[in-house]
Design a protein that fits this description.
With about 475 residues, this protein is α/β, with parallel strands linked by helices. It has helices spanning about 30-40, 60-70, 85-105, 115-135, 155-160, 175-180, 185-195, 205-220, 245-255, 255-270, 290-300, 325-345, 360-370, 385-390, 420-435, 435-455, 455-480, and strands at about 5-10, 15, 25, 50-55, 80, 140-145, 165-170, 200-205, 225, 230, 235-240, 275-280, 310-315, 350-355, 370-375, 400, 415. It has a nine-stranded mixed β-sheet with strand order 5-4-1-6-7-8-11-10-9. β13 (about 310-315), α12 (about 325-345) and β14 form a beta-alpha-beta unit. α4 crosses α5 (about 155-160). The chain is globular and about 70 Å long. The model has no long low-confidence stretch (mean pLDDT about 95). The structure holds GDP-alpha-D-glucose. One of its GO terms (cellular component) is cytosol. Belongs to the glycosyltransferase 20 family. This is Trehalose 6-phosphate synthase/phosphatase.
């Protein structure tokens, strides 16, 4: 019997130290909710003897000890913290991860910083993770590494434990080679070599798989046939695994008294008004300024909608120590004031802007109360908010979705727009606000059927099963 070891940059919780008492706060975010649903679920076909999560802990090592002694660390599964010094973590996380890889992989080359020191810190933190895996590894364990902060890790682990079963999943886009090649040659090679240490590499869309294979061919002269890559006498598979949501959880949540209570008070407050809704982390990839411009143009073009709608525009604090993010926040807030200043009346404001975290119940209430969800990133690996909105809708709801998200290839019944084409977004808003109820229902039903059939448990089981198959294929290859 083997154990499943999940590896991600952050552990799925953080410690709150307010009032001298230690308490645990579960992190929000797609990866955490996906894996936690699986860990807590009962119908797991892949039968693991134990489950362990490795990740960094966002507080000093003494706090970890104190939290352990206070019994504040959850014990539903094993937890193995990785500790990195503050400066090195800063260069790894805000530096290479979020000021080099993030903008480059999301097609914002002009924002990319090329700092050798940051790459060195990135390598050093990936090494700390490799050492942690080596320290706890037992033969037969299955290791699943997540996301762009740990691209070098698979090869570092493979060097230490050559026959390990190791999968890797990338949650953000893998860009076309024309973008990827902008990175210095040595980093580019190390990153591809790092990822190829896995037995199976998963991506959200077919395009990302193809971009990766193309980059391996161009930068490493690797050989491939369909989705199989032959590299340094190993076989590595690159496959499509579009991340899914816990569909039932959202459908059930909207029927609870707590969520219904919040929804009713929202509907009471905005009686006779259509509710447009969006929620995103503060990030330039989410296209927030473009979205506000389109909303402003909508109010100019269709003045008859004034006082008949409200746009609840939620931004979740994120990375707001990085200068680009601080600048964006300022410019979003200026735009919100401009629109409200320009169009408000004594009784009405078009935009209700919030910059804070919401509870799960509040999020679900907003999903189910919203007549229109306006999800228009400039780039997004997948975008779970779009899927969650569809799952939480019952009697009504129209999804307007950027064609530049991974989710667009699955949610074909959404009104798809190009987020930089302001009039395209304006027309979609008009169409959504006027859409007859039967058409809303028909579009939602098509998407809901697909999302319920392939939920987050399928996503995880599918990945783990294909990982075992990839490993077996490799072993057969070694024997021959
Ligand atoms: C990355 C990729 C990919 C958000 N605000 C609150 C809250 N959330 C939850 C949502 C959703 C998740 O966070 C956000 O997921 P997204 O997919 O929309 O976006 P990223 O954070 O950028 O995620 C993305 C994803 O990884 C998974 O692979 O889809 O492309 O960029 O689950 O519900 N949850 C609560 N309060 C909030 O205020 N409770």
């Amino acid at each position: 019997m083997s154990r499943l070891i999940i590896v991600s940059n952050r552990l799925p919780f953080s410690i709150d130290r307010s009032n001298d008492t230690l308490s645990v706060r579960q992190s929000s975010g797609g990866l955490v909710s996906a894996i936690k649903s699986y860990f807590e679920g009962e119908n797991q076909t892949a039968d693991f003897q134990g489950k362990i999560w490795i990740g960094t802990f966002d507080a000093p090592e003494e706090d970890w000890q104190a939290a352990l002694e206070a019994g504040a660390i959850p014990t539903d599964f094993g937890i193995e913290p990785v500790f990195a010094g503050r400066d090195i973590y800063e260069a790894f996380y805000n530096g290479f991860s979020n000021s080099t890889l993030w903008p480059l992989f999301h097609y914002f080359p002009s924002l990319v910083e090329y700092e050798q020191e940051n790459f060195d810190a990135y390598l050093a933190v990936n090494r700390l993770f490799a050492e942690k895996i080596q320290a706890i590894y037992q033969p037969g364990d299955v290791v699943w590494v997540h996301d762009y902060q740990l691209l070098l890790l698979p090869a570092l682990v493979r060097q230490l434990i050559p026959d390990i079963t190791l999968g890797f999943f990338l949650h953000i886009p893998f860009p076309s080679y024309e973008i990827f090649r902008m990175m210095p040659t040595d980093w580019k090679r190390q990153i591809l070599h790092g990822m190829l240490g896995a037995d199976l590499i998963g991506f959200h869309t077919h395009d990302y798989v193809q971009h990766f294979i193309q980059s391996v061919k161009m930068a490493l002269k690797g050989d491939s046939q369909f989705n199989t890559i032959y590299y340094e006498s190993r076989i590595v598979r690159a496959e499509l695994f579009p991340i899914a949501i816990d569909f039932k959880k959202f459908q059930q949540a909207v029927t609870t008294p707590q969520v219904q209570g919040i929804r009713e008070s929202l509907e009471e407050r905005f009686r006779d008004k259509k509710i447009i809704f969006s929620v995103d982390r503060l990030d330039y990839t989410k296209g927030l300024n473009y979205r506000l411009n389109a909303f402003e143009r909508f109010l100019e073009t269709y003045p008859e909608w004034k006082e008949k709608l409200v746009f609840i525009f939620n931004v979740i604090p994120s990375r707001d120590v990085i200068p680009t993010y601080i600048d964006r926040k300022r410019s979003i807030e200026e735009k919100v004031s401009t629109i409200n200043g320009r169009f408000s009346t004594l009784d009405w404001q078009p935009l209700l802007y919030r910059y804070n975290h919401m509870s799960f119940e509040e999020l679900c209430a907003l999903y189910s109360a919203a007549d229109v969800a306006l999800i228009t990133p400039l780039r997004d690996g997948m975008n779970l908010v779009a899927k969650e909105y569809v799952a939480a809708c019952s009697d009504k709801g129209v999804l307007i979705l950027s064609e530049l998200t991974g989710a667009a290839s699955e949610l074909s019944e959404a009104l798809q727009v190009n987020p930089t084409d302001i009039m395209d977004v304006v027309q979609a808003l008009e169409q959504a606000l006027l859409m007859p109820a039967n058409e809303q229902g028909r579009r939602l039903a098509g998407m809901q059927q697909r999302l319920s059939r392939y939920d987050v448990n399928h996503w995880i089981e599918d990945f783990l099963q294909q990982l075992q198959e990839a490993k077996q294929e490799q072993q057969r290859n070694e024997i021959n």
